[in-house]
Amino acid sequence: MALNVAIVGMGGIGNVHAQCYEKDPIARIVAVCDIIRERADRAAERYGCPAFYSVRDMLKSGVRIDCASMCTAGVENGGDHYRPTMELLGGGIPVLGEKPISNEVAKAEKMVALARKKHLRYGINLNHRFTPAACRAKEWLDEGRFGRPHIINMTMWIDNPNETSPYFHIRALHPHSIDVMRYFCGDVISVHAFFLRGETRDGRKRKCWSNLQANMLFKNGVVGHLTGSYDAGGGFGLERCEVTGSKGRFVLNDACVDLTFYSRNGTETETYHHLGGMTGFGETFASRIHRWLEQNAAKVAPSRIDGSGEDALRAQKIIEACIASWERKAVVDVKY
Ligand SMILES: NC(=O)c1ccc[n+]([C@@H]2O[C@H](COP(=O)([O-])OP(=O)(O)OC[C@H]3O[C@@H](n4cnc5c(N)ncnc54)[C@H](O)[C@@H]3O)[C@@H](O)[C@H]2O)c1
């Protein structure tokens, strides 16, 4: 039986979620909500459901909602998530939020705490790890194909000329890269980060810290590095993740384009191109959202949600530790 889904925030990404739900056989869109009336009305017409202009009115309406996507944005792309997420969770609705969970750790903690208190599933759209290639690499890691993991290197870079606040780049983009690093190697305990203000493609000097290099020590002893930039794009690609271990290494390109296994004991390699038929980043939304729907349909325990609010909160704490490291010029322990 299909799940009744509501979507809050009908901008670009809310509509991407809606198109995924439309195509997914286990979802039915029953409500859309935006504080901008025209956006809500346009979406209601497009998806054939009622429009609401506040979460409160949507909850009062009596429309049965099994789970909701939260696609607001705001300061550093996460400033508006808190209030409507708390309203949805307060109303007993499982929530799939957009990243960053929040640009403020204290608010992220409150959302995670409320979901836990009410035993509700709370996921975040950490879509980069929801690819057949990333899942295959994780299986290899878990079955010991690389031996003991030693090093993880992650690069994520795009061209984003926007300037909002000094740490916009790390707070808005790197929930994704850090989530992928955590997916493969677990929790980070210490960081040491450096930032640089670069230039946009048209030569404008940046006000925000648009380039990042961070060293990370993981709880399991793995040593990692994150390279990030908003001054990239073009032929740079989107991301590259490499893990080495005592027996081998893998390289994962652009989340789903190429995955290659390299053995330490030989020169033969094993490469998958577009594993599982996934060809580009845009398709990661549908696969992440389908997993969220599956887990809700199966009524899994909130603690077993893949790409959970808790995962996103932990990534945000690593981000804040990187910022503290740069400001204090020191190695900083992550506070959990
Ligand atoms: N996972 C990904 O790969 C990915 C990619 C891009 C963007 N995002 C994230 O998606 C989110 C949305 O981005 P966007 O570009 O669609 O933003 P947007 O500004 O275009 O849309 C946000 C919408 O939310 C509405 N809104 C704000 N507060 C509201 C409230 N209280 N109730 C109802 N509606 C409200 C706004 O009116 C707006 O229409 C951001 O958090 C962004 O970081 C994720």
Give the key terms.
single chain; 336 residues; alpha/beta; Rossmann fold; Dihydrodipicolinate Reductase, domain 2; 2 domains; nine-stranded mixed β-sheet; six-stranded parallel β-sheet; 34% helix; binds nicotinamide-adenine-dinucleotide
Question: What is the fold's blueprint, element by element?
Answer:
Blueprint: E1 3-8, H1 12-23, E2 27-33, H2 37-47, E3 51-52, H3 55-60, E4 67-70, H4 82-90, E5 95-97, H5 105-117, E6 122-124, H6 132-142, E7 149-157, H7 168-185, E8 188-196, E9 211-218, E10 223-229, E11 239-245, E12 248-253, E13 258-263, E14 269-273, H8 284-297, H9 309-328, E15 332-333
Parallel strand pairs: 1-2, 1-4, 2-3, 4-5, 5-6, 7-10
Antiparallel strand pairs: 7-11, 8-9, 8-15, 9-10, 11-12, 12-13, 13-14
Bound molecules: nicotinamide-adenine-dinucleotide.
Structure, described:
It contains nine helices and 15 strands. The chain has a nine-stranded mixed β-sheet with strand order 14-13-12-11-7-10-9-8-15. Strands 3-2-1-4-5-6 form a six-stranded parallel β-sheet, sandwiched between helices. The chain is α/β, with parallel strands linked by helices. 34% of the residues lie in helices and 25% in strands. Strand 5 (95-97), helix 5 (105-117) and strand 6 form a beta-alpha-beta unit. It starts with a strand and ends with a strand. The chain has two domains: 3-127 and 285-308, Rossmann fold, CATH 3.40.50.720; 129-280 and 316-333, Dihydrodipicolinate Reductase, domain 2 (2-Layer Sandwich), CATH 3.30.360.10. It binds nicotinamide-adenine-dinucleotide.
